[in-house]
Amino acid sequence: MPNAQQNVYIIDGARTPFLKAAGAPGPFAAADLAVAAGRPLLARQPFAPNEFDEVILGCVGPGVDEANIARVASLRLGCGEETPAWTVGRNCASGMQALDSAATNIASGRADLVLAGGAESMSHAPVLFSLRFVAWLAGFSRAKTFPDKLRALARFRPGLLKPVIGLLRGLTDPVAGINMGQTAEKVAHRFGVAREEMDAFAARSHERLAAAVDDGFFEEEIVPIFDTAGNAYREDTGLRRDSTPDKLAKLKPVFDRPAGKVTAGNSAQITDGCAWLVLAGERAVARHNLRVRGRLLDCNWAGLDPAQMGLGPAHAGAPLLQRNQFELHDIDYWEINEAFAAQVLACLAAWRSDEYCREHLGLRGALGEIDPARLNIDGGGISIGHPVGASGARIVLHALRVLEKNDWRRAVATLCIGGGQGGAMLIERAEKKPRAN
Hints:
Blueprint: E1 9-15, E2 19-20, H1 30-43, E3 54-58, H2 69-76, E4 85-88, H3 94-108, E5 113-121, E6 127-128, H4 131-142, H5 146-154, E7 164-165, H6 166-170, H7 180-190, H8 195-214, E8 225-226, E9 232-233, H9 245-248, E10 271-280, H10 282-288, E11 294-303, H11 312-323, E12 333-336, H12 341-352, H13 354-361, H14 381-384, H15 391-406, E13 410-417, E14 421-429
Parallel strand pairs: 3-4, 3-5, 12-13
Antiparallel strand pairs: 1-10, 1-11, 2-10, 5-10, 6-7, 8-9, 11-14, 13-14
Helix pairs in contact: 1-2, 3-15, 4-5, 7-12, 11-12
């Protein structure tokens, strides 16, 4: 971090399998997922859970029983009553915001050891009553006499019971007045992203995830979790091994019928999941003799038109590179969260565009091109899923593991954020210590 008093190191991390929502509430609330991911992670550390200076968790929609969900998870994980815990929210980047907040406190010397991450149980998003029904119910409750209650009942209409789907409201921008899928349609139209490109990208996401699963690459990253009925969940459940561009081409548009290009198949899945990272400063590394796996170098946030929110990575990533005096080719690996295939492809097109980079990113010309072999090489939100509060932490954790596997040095993890923002985090792999002769 710039002007840091101490470096910020990544010590370890883990996540749950990402579980695709199946139309009903899943087996885990967000706090359950946070505890399930955290217990095995903390059990393998050389220090006690109460050694953390603080716990920070990103979450967009905690349940009504999970107020300040970070504190709930912290206490259930045994971090102790004296360890403060706080919840952050930056929509889709809440998990990354937790990491950035932890890194800022470590770099400044206010903390030495922090557990940070993100959790979301999107299948548990509430179904609500309308305000009209609530107003009627309030009027009925105020009625004291039997005639007053009869008059209140006479004003009841069955339409008052029409449910309000909390998830749909949450995925709709209240300023732009459109949902996230419609913003993807807008950026696809702006950069001429074809439906065929989107479907090919989506199919490749599933293909790459399948290859990584078969190779056993996720066995260290994912911790198995178990529900109260004893069922085990060991892998991400959104993988569709039979996905092909031809099959995806048969799906109808969801957000702009009938002429749109964004479908359920080339969009991220509604998912439940959690990801944690253990971050430490130099003092904690020395005190506990910790093995350093990586270093968090910098983070950048950007704002843009909410109706074009999918371009957030383009706006956040470019200044991050400039501030650290890096070119695109200086980054060995990129994780761009796959909220929509259209959105990722539009960001890549924006960085290739001289006009866009000059007019909107303040650059002299096009930023350049990312090698597809250095981008989301094990799949992404389309195949893995996108539990909004957790994804920002997941892509940082996975980027580090890809660096380790390939002996690469630097990575950027970046994502778009509902409401018109972007976040990007720069990390590097720890240098291997020379072997003794």
